[in-house]
Design brief:
The chain is 78% helix and 0% strand. It starts with a helix and ends with a helix. It is mainly alpha-helical and 81 residues long.
Length: 81
């Protein structure tokens, strides 16, 4: 589901990306791409104009994975929302 989500993300298919990344997160709660999937869900919601949803995922990314590059990017996004 992560690779599929990434494909949708690249093609600006935000709803499909969200669903795929959510599926990945459910199946892989400790997966190595969990933080990145969380960040990309936030970005997808942002692209859809759903700022409060985006904010929730960016905050989760920053709080749960503070040392990751995804968290650094999420922090920047939070400042811009």
């Amino acid at each position: 589901p992560y690779d599929k989500g990434s494909e949708y993300f690249k093609k600006n298919r935000w709803e499909d990306a969200i669903l795929s990344f959510e599926e990945y997160r459910k199946k892989n709660p400790r997966g190595k791409s969990y933080s990145e999937a969380t960040y990309k869900i936030g970005m997808s919601f942002k692209k859809l104009g759903m700022k409060s949803d985006a904010k929730a995922f960016f905050k989760e990314c920053v709080n749960k994975f503070p040392k990751t590059s995804a968290a650094r990017r999420a922090k920047k996004e939070l400042k811009n929302l």
